[in-house]
What we know:
The structure is a single chain. It contains five helices and no strands. It has helices at about 5-20, 40-65, 70-100, 105-130, 135-195. The longest helix is centred in the last third of the chain and has 60 residues, at about 135-195. By secondary structure, it is mainly alpha-helical.
Amino acid sequence: xxxxxxxxxxxxxxxxxxxxxxxxxxxxxxxxxxxxxxxxxxxxxxxxxxxxxxxxxxxxxxxxxxxxxxxxxxxxxxxxxxxxxxxxxxxxxxxxxxxxxxxxxxxxxxxxxxxxxxxxxxxxxxxxxxxxxxxxxxxxxxxxxxxxxxxxxxxxxxxxxxxxxxxxxxxxxxxxxxxxxxxxxxxxxxxxxxxx
Length: 196
């Protein structure tokens, strides 16, 4: 299952403008098939996939315990946040796995955006809002989840930057190769025309 083409193009364009290293002047001395996926990010995603069900069960249990003492608006907000985080987390982990392992820039950019703009603010809301009367277990699991998210945001940014730089280098080298092949063809044509 892949992202729809318009979404892939927009995320690709976004990541090229956001993560391109403008300080580089030429290609690096590296092989063409160098792996740029991040082992640290992949390990974090792996452990996060096992931690999230624990987080979800703990959050539901703590919500059930403190539900009667919460004001009505906080009841609605907390249930909505947990449902949103559950839906987003599945999509986010899928995009992270696909983007990192298969070195797909749009998927990894989508993972980074979901992590930074949706998951991190939601978990920080659950962690630091005083009106929610967080229980000790709840604080502990929210802190661990926040550490996972913070590490993944930083490592995904660095991985995206490295991927985009490698793809840009490949593109420029392919463009240069096409240009040199075309010039060689022009020389052959000139020599044939001169012989005639």
